[in-house]
Amino acid sequence: MSPLPPRVDLCPLTPADQDEFCALVRASAELHTPWMQLPTTAAAFREWMRRFEDGTNLGFLLRVRETGAAAGMVNVNSVIRGRYQGASLGYAAFAPSAGRGYMAEGLALVLRHAFEDLRLHRLEANVQPGNKASLALVRRLGFRYEGLSPAYLYIDGAWRDHERWAITAPAPWTPDASLPAV
Ligand SMILES: CC(C)(COP(=O)(O)OP(=O)(O)OC[C@H]1O[C@@H](n2cnc3c(N)ncnc32)[C@H](O)[C@@H]1OP(=O)(O)O)[C@@H](O)C(=O)NCCC(=O)NCCS
Predict the structure, then answer these.
(1) Could you tell me if the CB of 152 is within 6 A of ligand 1?
(2) Residue 182 falls within a domain, yes or no?
(3) How many domains does the chain have?
(4) 101 Cβ partners below 8 Å, 6+ apart?
(5) Which residues have C-beta within 8 Å of that of residue 50, sequence separation ≥ 6?
(6) Does 5 score more than 90 pLDDT?
(7) Atom of ligand 1 nearest to the CA of 131
(8) 138: CA distance to ligand 1 center in Å?
(9) Which atom number of ligand 1 is nearest to the Cα of residue 92?
């Protein structure tokens, strides 16, 4: 029996998403605090969108197929090619549809896009030890625990320790042309 099709689509984040995105982030303050800070105003959103201009960071919304509503966001951050061919994930659910499995399905689509289309070899998720929901999510997706990175990211006004979780491309994997031959 073939698996059910995903209930969400992976949609590149665009300037047109501004008002919906900011409203959903404002509605998600309790869920996101203290783990994630996202733009809540038009000016902050425009500034935030600049990070996607040179292709080093990619931004996506997870949209529920049935309704078109955005269930969450995922960033593929800090894409490094050469001998690394990796990136690091940032993600957050939006409160109105959190806890329904949309993030797990959407992140599975992100993994497939990253490994098959972008031809990345490795994705990291750096998660604070107290962020149980995020740890459960990456564990469910097959990420492996690699260790603790002390004072790794500046979050909510302080340098926070993070657990480093990672997943590498399943075989067979087709490398990007930027991977050195030897
Ligand atoms: C971490 C975070 C993204 C998880 O989002 P989420 O919406 O809870 O994720 P999902 O819904 O995909 O999965 C969680 C739950 O859905 C349940 N679920 C899975 N499939 C389901 C389905 N088909 N229908 C209903 N529920 C389902 C899972 O069992 C899980 O519940 P459990 O953890 O109690 O077992 C969210 O808590 C969040 O935004 N946190 C703040 C930001 C943040 O921490 N980002 C990460 C920084 S590292």
Answers:
(1) no
(2) no
(3) 1
(4) 7
(5) none
(6) no
(7) 44
(8) 10
(9) 39
Q: How confident is the model at residue 71 (pLDDT cuts 50, 70, 90)?
A: very high
**38-51 burial: b if 16+ Cβ within 10 Å, else e:** bbbeeeebeebbee
Ligand 1, pocket-test mutation among 36, 132, 137, 141, most atoms within 8 A of CB: 137
Render pLDDT for 74-126 as a digit per residue (tens, 0 to 9). Answer: 999 999 999 999 999 999 999 999 999 999 999 999 999 999 999 999 999 99
Q: What is the mean pLDDT of the chain?
A: 97
Global pTM reads: 0.95
Tell me if 103 CB under 6 Å of ligand 1.
yes
The CATH number of whichever domain residue 63 belongs to comes to 3.40.630.30
CA atoms in the 13 A half-sphere facing the CB of 60? 24
What residue's CA is closest to ligand 1, atom 1?
134
Q: Is residue 176 part of a domain?
A: no
Residue 136 structural domain: 8-168
